[in-house]
Write a structure and sequence with these properties.
Growth Hormone, Chain: A; mainly alpha; disordered C terminus; 2 domains
Length: about 475
């Protein structure tokens, strides 16, 4: 196996574990609540919220740390921290310990994500990166999608603690196998510590925004805490941007936002993530609440989508290397939207899995495989080497905020079921997801252009297919 693919394999395992913990604990939450009897649901929900908020808030700073101190070093530190935090989650004797360990787990996971992609990018030439990024990016999406099924198997057959313990041996194996393979790289122009004030402003802005989104449903969007979080985010964000503008070594190089390919692809990633993560939550709610599936049954019923995404993501990346990103992403978003339409027109109160849900899962899975990783490569494939971790950290932050907003939007729409009826509420949710996907595709079709200095698509990436106009 070529070195580049070994690096991709090592980093993909780590990305899978970090991304899995965004959703896998959702399925274990009712069991955790039962064990810690007497603890309020609102307090214990911070075992979910704390991870999502901490993860999103720390990504930009983690990317700059990787560029400054070395991508391999930060990756291995993050992997070690994630393993230790997972062990602490698994043995947590109290709810407070579990929540604290989950926050630590999120911060360690934030170190892993941008450094992992920054380790992959130098291993492939720019005109071959889409296939590699396709695999890397699909792993994160597949992990999030398989969270309910894997989590339900572990919870039903072992314990909710197994959801965390399973990370430990996999982290150790990845660390041992990866250490001799991964090559160190960094931003050679960076000196001294990263901008501390800029880090605090960035963490505060993203953290407050994510807090308002994640907790809005529990607290109420008119709650003073949610309003205060939004006000703080609105105040800190311009200060963060101003700080980045004035620094020679900023946490976020604002010059990246002037690059059309980078800005458009990240906006598309935000829109698609909103719809994709809303789908994961909504479909589980339908299976459990309407079709009365068990937790395990619902998790297994959702497995075909991730399988089809896994099968199509690598070929989608190779097609993007040859044809260009738009030619893959635009059809992918349309295929995903077709899956959503099939849910709207086909789902009913009586379980009809093979004739109703399974066909829709095939479409959504293929759409995810074509889109979620390829839109990431559209944003990251042409980054300058000194900005590998920074750019991928920004992309991961955008996706995480999109995921949080998608979840919150789905909760809000399904919350209207008492007024409009369950069927109408679910139809509106699926319609929203289709609209988000189509908007992402339209944005890529109309506005995306690869940078002029980028190499042309590699005509050998998919032999036997005639060349066409690229992005």
């Amino acid at each position: 196996m070529a070195r580049g693919w070994k690096v991709l394999m090592v980093t993909s395992v780590a990305v899978y574990l970090v991304s899995l913990d965004v959703t896998v604990v959702n399925i274990a939450f009712p069991t955790i609540l039962e064990e810690f009897e007497g603890t309020s649901r609102t307090f214990l929900s911070w075992s979910l919220s704390g991870y999502n908020i901490g993860f999103a808030a720390a990504l930009l700073t983690a990317g700059r740390l990787a560029d400054r101190f070395g991508r391999k070093r930060i990756f291995l530190i993050g992997l070690t921290g994630f393993s230790v935090a997972s062990m602490l989650c698994g043995i947590a004797p109290t709810p407070g310990t579990l929540i604290a360990a989950r926050v630590l787990q999120a911060l360690a996971g934030a170190l892993v994500m941008p450094s992992s992609l920054a380790l992959v990018l130098p291993e492939f030439p720019p005109n071959r990166r889409s296939a590699a990024i396709g695999v890397w990016g699909a792993v994160g999406g597949i992990a999030a999608a398989t969270g309910p099924s894997l989590g339900s198997v572990l919870v039903e057959n072992i314990s909710w603690r197994a959801v965390f313990f399973i990370n430990v041996p996999l982290c150790i194996a990845t660390w041992i196998f990866g250490r001799p393979i991964l090559q160190e790289s960094r931003d050679e122009n960076a000196r001294g510590m990263p901008d501390v004030l800029g880090s605090f402003l960035g963490i505060g802005a993203v953290g407050m925004l994510t807090l308002a989104i994640v907790q809005g449903d529990d607290w109420g969007y008119d709650d003073s805490r949610v309003i205060a979080a939004l006000v703080l985010a609105a105040a800190l964000l311009p200060l963060f941007l101003l700080r980045c503008h004035r620094r020679t070594d900023p946490i976020l190089d604002l010059g990246l936002l002037k690059e059309r390919y980078f800005t458009v692809a990240n906006l598309a990633a935000f829109l698609f993530s909103l719809g994709f993560f809303a789908m994961l939550f909504t479909n589980v709610q339908y299976l459990v609440g309407v079709w009365q599936y068990s937790t395990l049954g619902a998790g297994l019923a959702m497995t075909p989508g991730p399988l089809f995404a896994a099968m199509t993501s690598a070929p989608a990346g190779r097609l993007a290397d040859r044809y260009g990103h738009r030619v893959v992403i635009v059809p992918g978003t349309a295929i995903f939207a077709i899956g959503m339409v099939l849910l709207v027109v086909g789902m009913g109160p009586e379980p009809q899995y093979w004739t109703r849900l399974f066909p829709a899962s095939v479409f959504t899975g293929v759409g995810v495989g074509f889109t979620i990783s390829t839109v990431g490569s559209a944003a990251n494939a042409f980054l300058p080497p000194a900005r590998f971790a920074m750019g991928s950290a920004f992309n991961a932050t955008v996706r995480q905020i999109g995921a949080a907003l998608g979840f919150a939007t789905a909760v809000a729409i399904l919350g209207t079921a008492d007024r409009v009826g369950p069927a109408a509420a679910f139809d509106r949710a699926w319609g929203m997801m289709a609209a988000c996907s189509l908007s992402a595709g339209l944005l890529m079709l109309v506005a995306y252009r690869r940078p002029l200095a980028a190499p042309q698509p590699d005509v050998s990436a998919a032999p036997g297919i005639p060349a066409v106009a690229a992005d």
